[in-house]
Design goal:
Elements (H helix, E strand, L loop, with lengths): L2 H19 L5 E5 L8 E5 L3 E6 L3 E8 L3 E9 L5 H14 L3 E8 L2 E8 L2 E12 L2 E7 L7 H11 L1
Antiparallel strand pairs: 1-2, 3-4, 4-5, 5-9, 6-7, 7-8, 8-9
Length: 158
């Protein structure tokens, strides 16, 4: 093999690995206005959407395959202070009986681990404040997700 061929193969391998590691590479940016949510996020092809209106809160679930299930809750704002909202969401997560640890934390969201009788599962919370509404994103209420699954879901809503 020539040096040129080796460089080409090495470059190709780097491109393939970097594309594979991008959780958004197989998702498309989707406007959710047709579902009553004036926000956009990345969604896998073939995803199904289901909206439920609880009066004071709306719930939009987005599901694709076994590894992607995002739930968005929309409600009126109680405060414009993102720190207050995030402290509340963090306290709620830590108070859950299966909470085990925070994996990563940002000013508008976090990923955490749950240990359910020895079975490790992951979840996240991400908050967007827009106009007079608060949008809280999380994994769907059913399912067992790996850390990689949750990191991909989290990246899709940011």
């Amino acid at each position: 093999m020539t040096v040129r061929t080796l460089i080409y193969l090495f470059s190709f391998a780097i491109i393939m690995v970097s594309c594979k590691s991008d959780p958004l590479s197989e998702m498309k940016k989707t406007e959710l206005m047709s579902h009553g949510f004036p926000i956009a996020m990345y969604v896998p092809d073939g995803a199904t959407f289901k909206k439920t209106d609880f009066g004071v809160m709306q719930d939009l679930t987005i599901k694709a395959g076994d590894n992607y299930y995002v739930q968005i809750f929309s409600s009126d704002l109680l405060t414009l202070d993102m720190k207050v909202v995030m402290n509340e969401k963090l306290a709620e997560a830590k108070a859950h009986r299966f909470f085990s640890k925070i994996i990563s934390e940002e000013e508008d969201g976090f990923i955490f681990e749950k240990n359910i009788d020895g079975i490790i599962n992951y979840d996240f919370r991400f908050v967007k404040i827009q106009g007079d509404k608060e949008y809280v994103f999380q994994t769907g209420l059913s399912g067992n997700y790996t850390e990689e699954d949750v990191k991909a879901m989290y990246a899709s809503v940011k």
